[in-house]
Amino acid sequence: xxxxxxxxxxxxxxxxxxxxxxxxxxxxxxxxxxxxxxxxxxxxxxxxxxxxxxxxxxxxxxxxxxxxxxxxxxxxxxxxxxxxxxxxxxxxxxxxxxxxxxxxxxxxxxxxxxxxxxxxxxxxxxxxxxxxxxxxxxxxxxxxxxxxxxxxxxxxxxxxxxxxxxxxxxxxxxxxxxxxxxxxxxxxxxxxxxxxxxxxxxxxxxxxxxxxxxxxxxxxxxxxxxxxxxxxxxxxxxxxxxxxxxxxxxxxxxxxxxxxxxxxxxxxxxxxxxxxxxxxxxxxxxxxxxxxxxxxxxxxxxxxxxxxxxxxxxxx
Length: 316
Prior knowledge:
Number of strands: 13
Order of helices and strands: EEEHEHEEEHHEHEHEHHEEEHHH
Largest sheet: 5 strands, parallel
Radius of gyration: 19 Å
Shape: globular
Helix content: 25-40%
CATH class: Alpha Beta
CATH superfamily: Ribokinase
CATH topology: UDP-N-acetylmuramoyl-L-alanine:D-glutamate ligase
Structural class: alpha/beta
Oligomer: single chain
Number of domains: 1
Number of helices: 11
Strand content: 25-35%
CATH architecture: 3-Layer(aba) Sandwich
């Protein structure tokens, strides 16, 4: 029997179905019992496994997924989309006792989002869900794990899980944040990040996580606990700040004419960053490519709708 092909990236953690409605004014809902029209409603994939995984597949990489879905129509939809886009799905556990995690995403006229979420089977996601598929990890160059902050049952065991993966699988690790992660003291933060190769939270997430108030102070604090690898801060329309251990620099954003939907922008950045690093680019060039992928993401409704092949970002 021939060996299974190698993977470029395994994406592990949260997978959800997103029901996106636009425009929705959450500050002025319709009266009770009445109906308000929206321009459209659509169902799409969501969560870091879907967003980062599908983005990377569209960029041209070989991807494996490790997550949980329910034995329901939402779960079948996710598995169908993963298979259609070429993701390896042997690491996806079908949970017969809880529904697929799902989110209603209310998008206002400016493209900003408000989320209504049910955790479903992701409340049952544990380290063993990942370690049971160590074969996928050993076949991969990178692992992207997320989200820190939205998988509370994993939080205490996450440092040990990442350390085990680093020691026994050998792949490089990106830890991705989602929402607002818990505030952490320096020692727990060191335990969490000591096995991580790339950590670039958003500014709001980084402030909450570290207690620091400026980009430079955030990076200094993260660098005290993460001695090597890539540290940075995503800054939305301002781009990002990246520190490679030798120097730090702001990398400007790519201009977007019209923001349609900011869903998945942070995940698109992660996908672009990992893709560029896989292609051998330095962290600062990789961040510029990541900003371009994120800019495409927000130009269309849905987290992965507008993502193109990797070569198109290198040429642009």
